[in-house]
Amino acid sequence: MNRTLFPTVPMLSRAAQTQPASLYQAGTPRLSSTNAEPTTHFRVTLRRSAIGLPKRSAQILEALGLHRRLQSVYHAQTPSIAGAILGVKELIHVENVRPVVPSVDATTSLNTVWVNAQGEVVDAGRQARKAPKGFRIIGNLVKEERDAALKARNAHSS
Fold first, then answer.
1. Of 36-40, 100-104, 109-113, 130-134, where does mean pLDDT reach its minimum?
2. 74-116-37 Cα angle (round to 5)
3. Beta strands in 83-156 (DSSP E)
4. Is the pLDDT of residue 48 over 80?
5. How far apart, in whole angstroms, are the C-alpha atoms of residue 5 and residue 134?
6. DSSP three-state, residue 121
7. Which residue from 12, 54, 95, 147 puts its CA 20 to 30 A from 36's CA?
8. Mean pLDDT along residues 123-134
């Protein structure tokens, strides 16, 4: 066997072959390490404004639902959306994502959790961004059955 066919290909050490997980950031939440499910949506984020550009660019951004910088929207991966993205590719950032629990229309649900192809959470949904109320209801003086239900719920959460 001739060993000089590929003389410029370096051989990886055993340590380099066994450390692919060290390439990921330690603080990034991951749902699973071996995620073979395909992505189904584009996460489109407006990075630059369309001020001073041709009117067609602003129309494409409006059609994609982007109105403010750093705003993100989700679109299903279709040829028409891909064409619109190509029309304003200099202004936006695109990520391939999928919902964790596929629903009928995940793009309109506010509580959908989105992950990328590596299984890293890119958007935890609106509930995760919501601020706490600042108070807790501990009882009800008007309805006794509601009071019992609230006390049972508070006992489980404590």
1. 100-104
2. 105
3. 92-99, 114-116, 121-123
4. yes
5. 69
6. strand
7. 12
8. 78
Other beta carbons within 10 Å of 104? 6
**Residue 83 class from Cβ within 10 Å (0-12 exposed, 13-18 middle, 19+ buried)?**
exposed
Most confident of 23-27, 32-36, 40-44: 40-44
Instruction: Tell me the one-letter amino acid at 12.
Output: L
pLDDT at position 126 over 70 = yes
The residue extents of the domains of the chain are: 37-130
End-to-end CA distance of the chain: 70
Tokens of 23: 């390439």
Answer whether residue 16 shows pLDDT above 50.
no
**Mean pLDDT value of segment 60-76:** 95
CATH fold group of domain 37-130: Ribosomal Protein L30; Chain: A, (3.30.1390)
Per-residue H/E/C for 28-91: CCECCCCCCCCCCEEEEEECCCCCCCCHHHHHHHHHHCCCCCCCEEEEECCHHHHHHHHHCCCC
